[in-house]
From TrEMBL:
InterPro entries given in the database record: PhoU-like_sf, Put_Phosphate_transp_reg, UPF0111_domain
Entry similarity comment: Belongs to the UPF0111 family.
Pfam families xref list: PhoU_div
Transmembrane domains' residue ranges: none
Annotated source species: Elizabethkingia argenteiflava
Highest taxon in the source lineage: Bacteria
Protein name per Swiss-Prot or TrEMBL: DUF47 family protein
């Protein structure tokens, strides 16, 4: 069945999935914006940023739960049920790891690193591209824009890989074992966020291939 035929049977109740995915991506963009800004203005004695990240993470959990509930209620879905589940889980992972990154910065009392803000900017850009991808998936009318967003996310993940490698090399030059343990742990959490964003992009690309 071609894309046009698929979306002829795309009924109003089916559109709930795109509505919920829009809510998730809006939450992720807001979360990543505040995370990036919070790290730029970082104060270890002010945990307001961490509280914000916790609130965003809980909100994401709630929307993800709504998606799973709707998945159990609705027979008609915009694409395969397992794809919806994979996307919802992947988006939830992004929120989880952003929150974990913030949490361990505070728990470890990790000194601020330039790499933290470099990662947070990459994360923010990846979340924006994920939002763009979902905005253009409606009806599969703007597949080119969806593909371009996915390509940008993959590129961001590659940049994050290099940033992790370079940051770890610089970190080991400090010869400060305790600091190395703390900072490397945070850096790994930050890099995983971009991995999870790439997972979402790959899932979206697989959907495009399946219904092309």
């Amino acid at each position: 069945m071609g894309i046009g035929n698929i979306f002829q049977v795309f009924q109003p109740k089916d559109k709930i999935f795109f509505v919920l995915f829009e809510k998730v991506t809006e939450n992720l963009v807001a979360m990543s914006n505040d995370f990036n800004q919070g790290l730029q203005d970082f104060d270890l004695n002010d945990d307001s940023m961490l509280k914000k990240m916790s609130d965003y993470e809980h909100k994401n959990d709630e929307i993800t739960h709504e998606i799973f509930v709707e998945l159990g209620k609705n027979f008609i879905t915009p694409f395969d049920r397992e794809d919806i589940h994979e996307l919802a889980s992947g988006l939830d992972d992004i929120a989880d790891y952003i929150y974990s990154s913030a949490k361990y910065i505070y728990l470890y009392k990790s000194p601020q690193q330039k790499a933290y803000t470099e990662f947070s900017l990459l994360i923010q850009k990846a979340c924006v591209e994920i939002q763009h991808a979902f905005q253009n998936m409606k009806g599969f009318k703007n597949m080119k824009q969806v593909k371009e967003a996915c390509i940008k996310i993959n590129s961001i993940e590659n940049i994050a890989d290099d940033l992790l490698s370079n940051s770890m090399a610089e970190l080991f030059e400090t010869h400060d074992a305790i600091n190395i343990i703390k900072v490397s742990s945070v850096l790994n959490y930050l890099e995983i966020v971009t991995d999870k964003a790439e997972d979402v992009a790959n899932a979206i690309e697989n959907i495009l291939i399946k219904y092309a």
